[in-house]
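Hi C.,

You asked whether I'd gotten around to modeling the 364-residue construct. I have! Everything is below, sequence then structure, no commentary in between.
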Amino acid sequence: MQIFADRLADHLQRDLRAVYTVWGDEPLLAQEAADAIRAAARAAGCSERQVHTVAGAHFDWSSLLGASQALSLFADRQLVEIRIPSGKPGKEGSEALQHYCEIAAAGGGRDVITLLQLPRLDRSQQSSAWFGALDRAGITIRVDPVERKALPSWIAERLAAQGQHVAAGAEGQRALAFFADRVEGNLLAAHQEIQKLALLYPAGEIGFEQIEGAVLNVARYDVFRLGEAVLAGQVARALRMLDGLRSEGEAAVLVHWTLAEDIRGLKRVKDALGAGKPLPLALREARVWGAKERVFERAVTLMSESTLAHLLDAAHVCDGLMKGLEHPDWPLDPWEALKRLVLLLAEQTARVGTKPIARMALTA
């Protein structure tokens, strides 16, 4: 059974299942969910803890099955943690996890509580037999990054939990928006800065200047989320993220590769649709998962085949600029070239009018 991460605390107060699976690519929320499960297990008498990390193809699954059934003489119950950083247990691991879940479900959590930690999973992994067994044996908790539009509310909730709040109305919303802009892409940094505010200021209202002073230099932008902003047509946000990546020393080559891969992905999806394949299948074959699915679905309907061909040409020109090759119609600076590529792609998904600079680059 799946529950949302924000409902986990309520669940743990009422019940404790035999198996908990925490999966997703947001480190802070995954850590908090795992800590809550560990605390509930300790409170329920799990005085012994085992940790097994599955790395590579040579993990001894039989030892895990044996250890989970061998209680210590000094422990009433035990917590068994299984970590699979790759999210791929393999054939042997798949069979072992299914058998493990049968044993755990039969025990009902009387002797052993299991916490399994996984990264973000694609659709095929979510529909696998081993993940289905985990879901049936206990509780699965999916942890996703907090979307930009939800980040101010998330920050406000965290502030409220420590007795602090921003001013009502536009002033408070401005402070929260500033906070969100500075920590976007790094929820751990946001959490740390919220805790810092609790140490610096007493409970009650905190103003814009106090927030500005605390979080001014903690931004950490994610190059892969830049593509999501561009494909969503969020031009201002995409340019801000691009500037943030540049100031933080990110490699221009990596930024270009991410944007070019999105363009190639759009072309693959468009070609698949033209061949008569349904959109879900086209996305899956193009290896488009998670949050990217929504923006791809929207973007691919806004772009013609000729537009995508021009964008591929632009990405090719930009690739040459990354390698030091000049082009008469493009800026020499790699980051300025990336800005032009971002504008070219974003203006298509935002349905804005074609600007002179974009037209020159798109037809180059």
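If it helps when you're writing up: DSSP finds 18 helices and eight strands in the chain.

Thanks,
B.
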